[in-house]
């Protein structure tokens, strides 16, 4: 590698201009350089290559060596322009890929609006969106499958950085025909004897003695769609945060749980100590704005 000539992309551009226009003066005018400056650039290129590019007696005519260099120089300049354009697109959010994972709460309540706005602003950015429970979202971020995650902290892994966005209170979720569905609120003690279905989200209740019974349920469902289908059919009840109930679930009721009121924290998770790509940073800013406009901002 040490034997390669130390040439800038400008040298190759000047060489191509002279070769294509057949004139140093015309090439200098198009390059917005003085003719002596452009002549010096070509002379430097010839000296570093060790061979003349243009005939000494006719400086607009390529030598045989120059003719062989011409397609290679053109290929190099075209490749440089492609790379420079791609880099500029990445930096200005005109290109690239955003991979993001979120819990169902965000996927159903926020993502439709956010994705539409994001696509309007950055139509050339490819989106890769995944939904899972909080633990699954954190694992996707750790594995590099998602650059950005929106969830509650579950794993408590030091490799992850978490930025809280909002708090969301837990409540009883049941079919609207359930006897407790019309209550203004219920206590944790009152629901302890109900046929409760456990989920991964209940790990966030650890440390709350009044809700400890939720961590040892006989029926456990990890998939939110399966859980909601069971609740819609009246097969048991569960405990979810308010935003965990999809807006298109008219058959379900949410009853706030009190004594005590327990909340989860939703926020942005990403790899600690790593900066975000421009595409991810833009979505992070949109999530922040959305959270500040919602109730329960941290």
In words, what does this structure look like?
With 298 residues, the protein is an alpha/beta fold. It is 40% helix and 22% strand. It contains 10 helices and 12 strands. Strands 3, 4, 5, 6, 7, 10, 11 and 12 form an 8-stranded mixed β-sheet that branches. A hairpin with a 2-residue loop joins β1 (54-55) and β2 (58-62). The longest helix has 28 residues, at 64-91. The chain starts with 8 loop residues before the first helix and ends in a 6-residue tail after the last helix.
Topology:
Layout: H1 9-21, H2 24-31, H3 35-49, E1 54-55, E2 58-62, H4 64-91, E3 97-102, H5 104-109, H6 111-121, E4 126-131, H7 134-143, E5 148-151, E6 160-175, E7 186-187, H8 188-191, E8 197-198, E9 219-220, H9 224-232, E10 238-241, E11 252-258, E12 263-271, H10 278-292
Parallel strand pairs: 3-4, 3-5, 7-11, 8-9
Antiparallel strand pairs: 1-2, 5-12, 6-10, 6-11, 6-12
Helix pairs in contact: 1-2, 1-3, 1-4, 2-3
Strand content bin: 15-25%
Number of helices: 10
Beginning-to-end CA distance, first to last residue: 55 Å
H and E string: HHHEEHEHHEHEEEHEEHEEEH
Spatial shape: rod-shaped
The count of DSSP E runs of length 2 or more, i.e. the number of strands, is 12
Given helix and strand content, the structural type is alpha/beta
Which regions have little confidence, pLDDT < 50, spanning 5+ residues? none
Helix content class = 25-40%
Largest sheet: 8 strands, mixed
Rg, nearest Å: 31 Å
Q: If you average the pLDDT, what whole number results?
A: 89
Features of this protein?
298 residues; alpha/beta; two-stranded antiparallel ribbon; 10 helices; 12 strands; 22% strand
